[in-house]
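Check these lines:
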Amino acid sequence: MRIKLLLLLCSLLVIGKWASAHDICLQRKARPNPMEIPIFPPSENCAILSNILNVNFDRTKDYATITVTNKATGEIVHSKTYHNTNFVMIDMSFCDKGEYTIYITLDDCLLEGIFTVQ
């Protein structure tokens, strides 16, 4: 009985964490594709959890420039180039509540996504 209760509590904790994390849909902004060759979705992913922006890359990148702008004002609130990394955490707690746009510049493409700071 205790084991079942413990498993239930752990499950509720994990579900609560998942519910509070918001995945950010990244879209690839690349050159036009005149031959209609299928382009795979980006393997990089991005999520915001408790005002911490997490960016994961599929493999270590030589460099990645991450720029975050306030969607309403156009103000750049974060811009930095990261070298030899596959994971980046950005604290967004100092930002006003609202919508923001993230731009991730890699050696082969530009990724863009929109998220909300609450």
